[in-house]
């Protein structure tokens, strides 16, 4: 017997297959295998550091280049360690795809190309 997927809405393991769709008896959610594949692709954010290593939420990174902080006279120096990054959707202007808090500067967004994973 093949294993059926858990319900994406409530996580129930008591799903069943009814023709072309899956159904959940606990919450009444209905979905197709195509919906399931599309949901998994949309929700994944991927960012790679300057060396090509995959970054994830909560990682610590080190800045590899002096970075000027826009709108300020502050500079983030080479070797500055940034703890607990968060992946975000990159903006169109600068491609900033990391949200973090830099000690001494505060919260800001960085581009993953200017950091390396610790």
Mind sketching the topology for me?
Blueprint: E1 16-18, E2 21-23, E3 30-31, H1 33-42, E4 47-48, E5 54-55, E6 61-63, E7 67-68, E8 75-76, E9 81-82, E10 86-87, E11 98-102, E12 106-110, E13 115-117
Antiparallel strand pairs: 1-2, 2-3, 4-5, 6-9, 6-13, 7-8, 10-11, 11-12
Number of H/I helices:
1
CATH topology of the largest domain: SH3 type barrels
- The CATH architecture term of the largest domain is Roll
Q: Output the radius of gyration.
A: 21 Å
User: What is the string of SSEs from the N terminus onward?
Assistant: EEEHEEEEEEEEEE
Range of helix content: under 10%
Q: Residue ranges: pLDDT <50 for 5 or more in a row?
A: none
Report strand order across the widest sheet.
Answer: 1-2-3
Q: Report the top-level CATH class of the largest domain.
A: Mainly Beta
Major β-sheet profile: 3 strands, antiparallel
Number of domains: 2
Mean pLDDT: 86
Give the helix/strand class.
mainly beta
What does this structure look like?
This protein has about 120 residues and is mostly beta strands. It folds into two domains: about 1-45, N-terminal domain of TfIIb, CATH 2.20.25.10; about 45-115, Roll (SH3 type barrels). It is about 10% helix and about 30% strand. It contains one helix and 13 strands; from the N terminus they run E-E-E-H-E-E-E-E-E-E-E-E-E-E. The protein has one helix at about 35-40, and strands spanning about 15-20, 20-25, 30, 45-50, 55, 60-65, 65-70, 75, 80, 85, 100, 105-110, 115. A three-stranded antiparallel beta sheet has the order 1-2-3. It has a three-stranded antiparallel beta sheet with strand order 9-6-13, with no helix packed on it. The model has no long low-confidence stretch (mean pLDDT about 85).
